[in-house]
Amino acid sequence: MRFSVLASGSTGNAIFVESGEHSFLVDAGLSGKQMEGLFQGIERKMSDLTGILVTHEHSDHIKGVGIVARKYKLPIYANEKTWKAMDPLIGEIPIEQKFHFDMETVKTFGDLSIESFGVSHDAAEPMFYVFHEGEKKLVLITDTGYVSDRMKGIISNADSYVFESNHDVQMLRMGKYPWNIKRRILSDVGHVCNEDAAIAMSEVIGDRTKHIYLAHLSLDNNMKDLARMSVGQTLESRGVGLGEQVHLFDTDPRIPTKLMAI
């Protein structure tokens, strides 16, 4: 199994995952042209995709979904409430390209099994995904106000995580956003801050965990170096040895990460 965080942040999100004969795009929150460029950056073709998995209907996750699906005739997978919220926003999609992927279920494509699970975010029915290939496990979790015990049970002991580390609380509190936006981000249906993300990570990291990609960083209320430092210090204070077994990686709003093999 290989994956790349193609883009991550409030300006657009997309993740590529492949295994054997199947490959998926998780969200397409950028324009069709931008998505083409991101795929060129990892030397892959969107025409080879098995389908698109949607996490929720916010524009930074679905901006390019309709364009990409229509151009390449790709199946789109989302739960019923997300479909209802997303349908008016992505343009007309042929019925044969619309598929339901219910929360807390598993779909299997060849040697790749994809498990969906709910998160806490202000969307219709937001959910993220765990990819399984044999004993290998990749977890994608962003856009959640907190990480519940239920979520921790589902995502525990993965080989690799793409994990939200959205904001530094002090930067957010002192920043330019109006209070209603700050309150939304800090709420249980907003986004996870650096320290809370690291605490959750420390509780799910297992013996086989090797890679953690810090994702969905706020452009205004976080910085890559700050996120890495905050997460790293919290993890080490909770007994996680960085640089030995577990390695932290940055993600970017515009530059895809190198394909990582699990």
How would you portray this structure in words?
With 262 residues, this protein is α/β, with parallel strands linked by helices. It has nine helices and 14 strands. The chain has helices spanning 32-41, 59-62, 65-72, 80-86, 149-155, 169-174, 179-186, 194-204, 224-237; strands at residues 2-7, 14-19, 22-26, 51-53, 76-78, 98-100, 106-109, 112-118, 127-133, 136-141, 160-164, 211-215, 247-250, 260-261. The strands form two sheets. The protein has a seven-stranded mixed sheet. Strand 3, helix 1 (32-41) and strand 4 (51-53) form a beta-alpha-beta unit. Helix 8 crosses helix 9. The longest helix is centred in the C-terminal third of the chain and has 14 residues, at 224-237. It is globular.
Brief summary of the model shown:
This protein is α/β, with parallel strands linked by helices. Helix content is 29%, strand content 25%.
Structural class, please?
A: alpha/beta
Return the average pLDDT rounded to an integer. Answer: 97
- Name the helicity range: 25-40%
Beta strand %: 25-35%
Gross geometry: globular
Quick tags:
single chain; 262 residues; alpha/beta; 7-stranded mixed beta sheet; 9 helices; 29% helix; globular
What secondary-structure arrangement, pairings included, does this model have?
Layout: E1 2-7, E2 14-19, E3 22-26, H1 32-41, E4 51-53, H2 59-62, H3 65-72, E5 76-78, H4 80-86, E6 98-100, E7 106-109, E8 112-118, E9 127-133, E10 136-141, H5 149-155, E11 160-164, H6 169-174, H7 179-186, H8 194-204, E12 211-215, H9 224-237, E13 247-250, E14 260-261
Parallel strand pairs: 3-4, 4-5, 5-6, 10-11, 11-12, 12-13
Antiparallel strand pairs: 1-2, 1-14, 2-3, 7-8, 8-9, 9-10
Helix pairs in contact: 8-9
